Amino acid sequence: DFRGIAGLTFENVEVKNGWFWHLTSWHSSDVMVRNCRVTGPGTTGMYDQCDGIHLASVTRGSIIGCHVDQGAGQDGDDGIAIHVFPGDGACTDVVIADNIIRGGHHGSGIDLANSDGTIAGVTIGNNVIWGCRREGIVTNWFSSFTGSTQDVVIANNVVRDCGAGIVLGDSSGN
Predict the structure, then answer these.
(1) Strands (E), 27-147
(2) Which of 65, 93, 105, 164 lies at 20 to 30 Å from 130 by C-alpha?
(3) How far apart are CA 20 and CA 48, in angstroms?
(4) Are 125 and 155 a contacting pair, CB within 8 Å?
(5) Which of 157, 100, 107, 168 is nearest to 132 (CA)?
(6) CA 26 – CA 35 distance, rounded (Å)
(7) pLDDT at 173 over 60
(8) How far is 7 from 158, CA to CA, in rounded Å?
């Protein structure tokens, strides 16, 4: 868990069997996650919220060329989560590209999760997302949604063998 860092790089890192979020940064800027491998715990009933890569309220983040597999067992959650918690402001200018992702039993491949902040300027491209019990790519709200998700580009991704492909909602839950 890395918080408030300007210029953070995770490169060629392998994380296995974490009990919560595997690679995480909060309130940081210029975050690069490149060529990393993240594997969920493969357990059932032991852990909760086991996201693979989790960026919360970051400015200028990139997740490039990673292999994320949260699908073994039933404790895995999102493969990649871009997240704004209540009162946390914004998550802006994020690129998620050239990754291979399998979300876990409780999550999606890529989740743009917002509450009362702003998620903006996100590009999701050239990823292979597979075997997710839920959605391949989703915009998701929790708490009482009053924020906005805007300027999102989703292009040239392969989503296969997921419960749903790409699910984009709005503040009314549609």
Answers:
(1) 29-34, 37-39, 53-56, 59-64, 67-69, 80-83, 90-97, 100-102, 110-114, 118-125, 128-130, 135-141
(2) 93
(3) 7
(4) yes
(5) 107
(6) 20
(7) no
(8) 30
Instruction: Give the integer Cα–Cα distance in Å for 44 and 120.
Output: 34
Rounded to 5°, angle at Cα 102 from 1 and 96: 60
Could you tell me the two tokens for 64? Answer: 């490039």
Burial label for 53, CB within 10 Å (0-12, 13-18, 19+), is buried
The contacts of residue 65 (CB under 8 Å, 6+ apart) are: 34, 35, 97, 98, 99
CB 135 within 8 A of CB 105: no
142 band by pLDDT with thresholds 50, 70 and 90:
low
Q: How far apart are CA 109 and CA 71, in angstroms?
A: 10
Evaluate whether 75 touches 46 at the Cβ level (below 8 Å).
yes
117, 84 Cβ separation under 8 angstroms: yes
What is the distance in angstroms between the CA of the first residue and the CA of the last residue of the chain? 33
Beta carbons of 61 and 94 less than 8 angstroms apart: yes
* Alpha helices, DSSP H, located in the chain: none
Beta bridge partners of 148: 118
* In the chain, % of residues over pLDDT 90: 63
